[in-house]
Prior knowledge:
Elements: H1 2-28, E1 44-49, H2 57-62, E2 65-68, H3 69-72, E3 92-97, H4 102-113, E4 120-121, H5 124-131, H6 141-156, H7 161-174, H8 184-197, H9 201-214, H10 227-249
Antiparallel strand pairs: 1-2, 1-3, 2-4
Helix pairs in contact: 5-6, 6-7, 7-8, 8-9, 8-10, 9-10
Amino acid sequence: MTSEVTIYLAAILGLLGLWLFHQAQVRSGRIQAVDLFDRSLVRLYVYVTSPERPICEVCAEAHGRVFLSSQVGKKGFSPLEGTCGGAGACQGFLIGLYGGWSEARELVARLQRSSKKAGVRLSREELLALAKGQWKKSVSADTDRVSVHLLDALCSESTDTDVAAEGYRYVIAQAREQRHLPFVVPAYLRLTGILLQQGREEDARRVIEQFERRFPADQPHPHGPSVEQRQRLEEKKSLLWKRQSLQVSA
Length: 250
């Protein structure tokens, strides 16, 4: 009997010590506190449009909008308040986050306080602050790593193409979960466009070759490129071959 009591007391003391260690880590800022009873992988979604080409007014208005996972899970959900009016469908990314760091936790609180009609829409500066926050120190770092790299890449592309390229490379190499796989093809296309913009033709050629090995045209893939995406890749290939031909002739 005495030995059993000793074991129980040791277990309780061990749990208490673990809790005190966790609290010390939170207070020091090494990790962020998180609701341990919320075990879903995604608590909020951020909608971000592609910076590659002009987008219609409806899609532009949706850029930066944020939603709780309960909203996204409803039948018929759309991040748009209307119908896309682009000549070709505008490209947007609905990026899911658990959000264990301070900026994301504050955003979840804002969403919970806001009315469903008004919602929350982040400015460019707020999107960057979210992507550049202390997510690496949070308990959701592993869960959010791919999503944050994609968000950072999309937000940084117009100001820092090196950061954007690094983010797209990370998505290409590390996307494994079902919710991240639809981002791989767009990441390839965005990365190729950046490399061509930077004049890095040889790097662009290697990325295109990697893409074609991963998604052969004669082998259907559940997350492979659409007809439009393959057409965009061909346009980038054509630009690449034209530049290389000019370099050879020069």
